[in-house]
């Protein structure tokens, strides 16, 4: 039987605006509701950015905590991943919510140009975020926007700042970063296996190539990411009506590739996270 595929859903992000897709969840209650529907469709990992009331990116730890409380209540066992991403947020604020101890948090191990800004991740800042996550038992998701981010990750492991094996996400399709090319993914995987034995991985395609990149990942035993942060369309002509619709489309691709969609328990085991326990104390 082939390895189950984890479907991660990036529900909001920091860039899409509600006026471009009315289905985008912006308030915490909209985010919890959207995550619940995506969870029922097969999404087992939620990646979240929170927003201020005017839709600008927020660093407010209370909003992250309120989101986490809501989804833990409505989506038993879902893997919560906070974004430490940069747009519109000062460096010091980007890890300010980690004391709420999500299961995971994103960690970009180098800087890269984004469409209109530099996504700034200076070496000392990366080390500080990594050590905070290590100390709070938060599993990082290593965001790889170029090859040096893989070699930097190996450095963090060697320095004891990151517990192996890591979980890596290869990101394609961000303007000014790596384009979606299958040969680039293959080379990245080769390097990852050499530098980070036992690492698990996801590939994320931003924009219209999302489902193409998902197919490449599924065919190679990787995991997949979807969601309105990355792509607001089901196809060229159809705006996605919800995060759940994108998850359903991704689940169809898993079926086509002969990969079962991972359950919460399987996703947690694959990523080496603690099992979800019910209030009765039983593993679920
Ligand atoms: Zn994000």
* CATH class division: Alpha Beta
Largest sheet: 8 strands, parallel, barrel
CATH level 4 superfamily:
Aldolase class I
What is the number of strand segments?
A: 12
The domain tally reads 1
Q: Are there runs of 5+ residues with pLDDT below 50, and where? A: none
Structural shape:
globular
Query: Helical segment tally?
Result: 8
Please estimate the helix content.
Answer: 25-40%
The helix/strand series, from N terminus to C terminus, equals EHEHEEEEHEHEHEHEEEHH
The CATH topology name reads: TIM Barrel
Indicate the mean pLDDT.
95
Sheet with most strands: strand arrangement? 1-2-3-4-7-8-9-10
Please describe what this structure looks like.
This protein is α/β, with parallel strands linked by helices and 284 residues long. The chain has helices at residues 28-40, 61-74, 123-135, 148-158, 182-195, 210-219, 243-256, 264-271, and strands at residues 7-10, 45-48, 79-82, 104-108, 112-113, 118-119, 139-144, 167-172, 200-205, 223-226, 233-235, 238-239. It has a single domain, classed as Aldolase class I (TIM Barrel), CATH 3.20.20.70. Strands 1-2-3-4-7-8-9-10 form an eight-stranded parallel β-barrel, surrounded by seven helices. A two-stranded antiparallel sheet has the order 5-6. The longest helix is centred in the N-terminal third of the chain and has 14 residues, at 61-74. The radius of gyration is 17 Å and the shape is globular. The mean pLDDT is 95. The site of zinc ion has 7 residues, from loops.
């Amino acid at each position: 039987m082939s390895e189950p595929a984890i479907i991660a859903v990036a529900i909001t992000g920091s860039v899409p605006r509600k006026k471009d897709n009315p289905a985008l969840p912006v308030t915490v209650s909209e985010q919890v509701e959207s995550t619940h529907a995506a969870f029922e469709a097969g999404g087992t990992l939620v990646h979240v950015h929170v927003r201020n009331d005017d839709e600008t990116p927020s660093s407010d730890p209370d909003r992250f905590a309120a989101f986490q409380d809501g989804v833990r209540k409505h989506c038993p066992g879902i893997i919560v991943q906070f974004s430490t991403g940069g747009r519109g947020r000062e460096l010091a604020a980007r890890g300010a919510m980690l004391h709420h101890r999500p299961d995971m948090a994103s960690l970009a191990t180098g800087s890269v140009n984004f469409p209109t800004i530099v996504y700034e991740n200076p070496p000392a800042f990366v080390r500080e975020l990594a050590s905070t996550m290590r100390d709070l038992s938060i599993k990082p998701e290593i965001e790889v926007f170029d090859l040096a981010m893989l070699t930097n990750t190996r450095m963090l492991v060697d320095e004891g700042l990151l517990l192996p094996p890591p979980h890596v996400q290869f990101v394609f399709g961000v303007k000014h970063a790596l384009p979606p090319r299958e040969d680039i993914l293959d080379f990245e995987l080769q390097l990852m296996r050499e530098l980070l034995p036992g690492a698990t991985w996801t590939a994320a395609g931003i924009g219209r190539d999302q489902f193409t990149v998902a197919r490449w990942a599924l065919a190679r035993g990787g995991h997949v990411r979807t969601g309105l942060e990355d792509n607001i369309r089901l196809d060229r002509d159809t705006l996605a009506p919800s995060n759940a619709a994108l998850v359903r489309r991704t689940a169809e691709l898993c079926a086509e590739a002969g990969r079962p969609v991972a359950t919460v328990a399987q996703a947690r085991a694959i990523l080496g996270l603690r099992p979800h326990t019910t209030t009765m104390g039983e593993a679920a």
